[in-house]
Amino acid sequence: MLLVFAGGKPPEGTWLILSRFGAAYYFLHFLVVLPVVGRLETPLPLPTSIRRPVLRPSRGGSRSEISQQAGHDDDNDNDSSKRPDQ
Fold first, then answer.
1. Residue range 63-78: average pLDDT?
2. What is the DSSP string of the chain?
3. Is residue 79 assigned to a domain?
4. Count of domains for the chain
5. Contacts of 64 (CB under 8 A, 6+ apart)
6. The domain containing residue 16 runs over which residues?
7. How far apart are CA 86 and CA 68, in angstroms?
8. pTM, entire model
């Protein structure tokens, strides 16, 4: 916001100094701060499978539990609704 506001002012006096500091921080943020933060932060581990829930299941149970109770098998590859090229 500083650069937006200072860009509308004449380039002299205090606005010139503030614009230079704002521009320096802007480039410093993307070229130095973000790469350092990316190296310091530890990412969460990837889930073992996309089918397994990452969060706890809700009170109603997970979708696979509900489909198994209803007699459906999620791992059935012989589904007739699939196209032949799948």
1. 54
2. -HHHHHHTS-SSTHHHHHHHHHHHHHHHIIIIIHHHHHHHSPPPPPPS-SSS-SSPP-TT--HHHHHHHTT--TT----TTS-TT-
3. no
4. 1
5. 51, 74
6. 2-37
7. 23
8. 0.45
